[in-house]
């Protein structure tokens, strides 16, 4: 991400190692205080998830990111976004 918050080197394939992968997304119709969850999977197995209360306003653009403590190992990954328990979107990427 650059200093203005825009993606750099956007793609769906990334090298293995110790780095962040970002998910940028637009939203609208959100209400303050609604529970939302970001979850990341490797080869369909949940690695980690985090649930928070929405605080970014009713519409806009934002991002989430993840870096495994041990770094990314090769495989297929998914980032999933939920509003309450409803799946809103999936972003897939591969670590080579």
CATH topology: Immunoglobulin-like
Structural class: mainly beta
Strand order of the largest sheet: 1-7-6-3-4
Count every beta strand, where a strand is a DSSP E run of 2 or more residues. Answer: 7
Largest sheet: 5 strands, mixed
CATH architecture: Sandwich
Query: Which H/E pattern describes the elements?
Result: EEEEEEE
From the alpha carbons, calculate the radius of gyration and give it in angstroms. Answer: 14 Å
Question: What's the topology here?
Answer:
Blueprint lengths: L12 E2 L6 E8 L6 E8 L2 E9 L5 E8 L8 E9 L2 E10 L1
Characterize the structure shown.
This protein is mostly beta strands and 96 residues long. It has a single domain, classed as Immunoglobulin-like (Sandwich), CATH 2.60.40.10. It has no helices and seven strands. It has strands spanning 13-14, 21-28, 35-42, 45-53, 59-66, 75-83, 86-95. The strands form two sheets. It has a five-stranded mixed beta sheet with strand order 1-7-6-3-4, with no helix packed on it. The protein has a two-stranded antiparallel sheet with strand order 2-5. A hairpin with a 2-residue loop joins strand 6 and strand 7 (86-95). It is globular, with a radius of gyration of 14 Å. The model has no long low-confidence stretch (mean pLDDT 95).
């Amino acid at each position: 991400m650059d200093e203005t918050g825009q993606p750099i080197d956007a793609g769906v394939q990334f090298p293995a190692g110790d780095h962040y992968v970002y998910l940028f997304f637009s939203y609208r119709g959100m209400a303050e205080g609604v529970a939302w969850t970001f979850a990341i999977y490797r080869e369909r197995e949940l690695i980690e998830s985090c649930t928070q209360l929405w605080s970014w306003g009713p519409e806009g653009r934002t991002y989430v990111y993840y870096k495994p403590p041990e770094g990314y190992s090769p495989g297929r990954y998914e980032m999933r976004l939920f509003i309450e328990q409803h799946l809103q979107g999936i972003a897939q990427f591969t670590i080579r």
